[in-house]
Amino acid sequence: MAKKEVYLIDGHSVIFRSYYAFIRNPLRNSKGENTSAIFGFVNTLRKILKEKKPEYIGCVFDSKAPTFRHKIFLEYKKVRPEAPSDLKYQVPVIKEICQAYGIKTIEVSGYEADDVLATLAKKLKAENCKIYIIATDKDLFPIVNDDIIIYDTYREILYDKEKVKERFGIEPALISDFLALTGDKIDNVPGVKGIGEKTAIEILKKYGNLEKALEKDERLKGKEEEIFFSKKLVSLRTDVPIEIDIEDLRIKERDNQKLLTIFKELGFKSFLDDFAEEKIDVEKSLKIITDATFFKKEEAFAFLITENKVYLGNKKVIYEGDLNSLKELFSTEKEKITFDLKEQYQYLEDWEFKNFFDIKIAAYLLEPERKRFLLEDLILSYLKILKKQLNEREKIFYIYSIYEQLLPELLVRNLTELFFNIEMPLIPCLYRIEKRGIKIDVDFFKNLAKELNNEILLLQKEIYKLSGLYFNLNSPKQLAAVLFDKLKLPIPKGKERSTASEVLIELLPYSPIIEKILRYRELNKILTTYVKPFPQLCDKNFRLHTYFDQTKTATGRLASLSPNLQNIPVRGELGQKIRKGFISEDGYLLISADYSQIELRILAHITEDENLIAIFLEDKDIHTATAAKIFKVKEEAVKEDMRRFAKMVNYGLIYGMSDYGLAESLRLKKEEAKEFMENYLNSFPKVKAWREAIIEKAKEEGFTKTIFGRPRYFPTLLAPNKTLYEQAKRQAINAPIQGSAADIIKKAMVEVDKKLMAKGFNIGLILTVHDELLFEIEEERVEEAKAIIKETMENIYPLKVPLKVNIGVGKNWQEAHP
């Protein structure tokens, strides 16, 4: 007689896995509520129902009541953080969905889901069933046998006896013994101190089981009581009082109307297809038209341009044709919607046009922490539809559909000015910068590569001599063994056994090898990241073309990629050398325009601190003036080391540095750092008040904003994890300042580029690096360009203090840098 197949779902296991799968970019419904766990759970459920077509299925949930484990061990699961508040309200909805699918939900007061699953599995096995438990928890592995399988739907792994043995090296029946020895950090089960997974497996393989190991292994002597206690905590109960038989798990008729209502409320449009009599075919739903004048009466249309044709449309019609015939339409006031305008701009650069809407940029402003902005990702997030392959017609349909959601969101969150006046005008400006590129002296970089390579080889020899052996300098593991095992260097207090730069810096007094290792790393990074690749990456005219990503950083700063020209060291001998290799064309000069202390000026504007404002209005040196206040001396008595110290304090405060962070950076005692911090904040009382207020506001509202309204969100400001909380505090202080600087620079880029083009300059803006803009200008027009650049940049936005721009000119970037 064939065995009946039963599928049992570990409810909370799937729920938590689904919630954290979207933790960086949570799915939300129209009310802004997190729906990630529900979406992931339903996806898993649909997968099982479609692929396995189970006749018998149940979903088991943890009980809220304390279990017997909590009663015998008060610390059980104490280290687990409380479930996030935006997860808790999703659980009842998931239970309701299960019931609407006709699936029995099971919960036994005082027992964990694992115990209920183990009891049910044992009972159903006795009734000649084969049981598949949908879970990822290793705690369930002890019950695995020929008829009980753990099914990990995320990794697509079926854990039968052989698969468990392959993963752990022991039989499933020994997993409880294994956990009794190792403990379980997640559940706070103690285990035996000093015995890790490898040792536990070795012991169990040698003796066969825990009881024999306790008799013969010296490492376990005297620890019997704690081991048996741990085993009691990890062992699954198979005697949970539950009256359920196989027929109780038979799947019932699905309540389509209830599911339709729930999924519509949640915005899960992709799931609605399960209940439609005919699935919507995007291409069939689009009417093909042959006359583009149709769109003259529409307020907006979506478009995509490929090498051969242009596609126009909305959710009802689609047009395919030649771009050149659409110049008049593109010059109208109609909203022209697309995805990734910069990638298509090569086809539009000679046209006069306006009113473009890039859904990629709009989504970025609404979700600046999101890591990916592929069209498929936006379709999933905003339309809840999973699409992997799209043709151009489908893309038009989805781009327009997403636009319909994004525009109201931009309006509600007051982001339209930032979107239409800064981010969208920036796109053609960035396209032109990328296209122009920046010229390099190829021979210079090839010679510099040889020079750096020779110094690196010399450093390697010196390091090997000091260490007494050859090893892979680029291997953190081998380097750590040399430093801490062979050379016996101390591990800095409060640090781990690490070879990170901040750890090595603390080891500088202990061995001359450290300085050489740090220098080796610096040179090797410069050589491999910049100097060596640059000649290979330039075009036939020896110009490098970087790519600027508008959606890469949460603060609003631009990111330079392939190659990254923003991370070239600014100061120091190497940074200056590299900049020397960036040159102008014959008959041209480079102009570097650098905002002076823009973030500190923004801090003065935002906080309205009279003392800070006065320093800038009087055009004093901010770091000298700050040093005088911190050290309580006259400005003329400030020495260079005092000024340098004050500079670190000034910028440290912008980045939300605490007194502890200041002590670490300046190698001070915490008490000294605290005193300096207090002196600073007492000198600028409104800065102090603003720092405190912005954190409280961020906690209350969940975000901060720049002067121009750019938001940055801080969900971890309410996190119980202290590290995450402190990091969020620092970011909440920094985001309005750094983000406002980014917005000002973007505005300046757009305006300066526009003015230089209007005046007929041949090249113009060729690079932006944080607060600096770099231009390539005809020699005979340099003074004219300098005047335009300086006037525009300094008057781009009316702060309460003057914006100041330092300008330099030269044949190479190093000469031009002011």
UniProtKB/TrEMBL annotation:
Its keywords, alphabetically, are: DNA damage, DNA repair, DNA replication, DNA-binding, DNA-directed DNA polymerase, Nucleotidyltransferase, Transferase
User: Which catalytic reaction applies to this protein?
Assistant: DNA(n) + a 2'-deoxyribonucleoside 5'-triphosphate = DNA(n+1) + diphosphate
**Top-level taxon of the source organism:** Bacteria
What EC class does the entry list?
A: transferase
Please name the Pfam families in this protein's record: 5_3_exonuc, 5_3_exonuc_N, DNA_pol_A
Which family is annotated?
Belongs to the DNA polymerase type-A family.
Tell me the protein's name: DNA-directed DNA polymerase
Which lineage do the record's taxonomy fields give for this organism? Answer: Bacteria, Bacteria division WOR-3
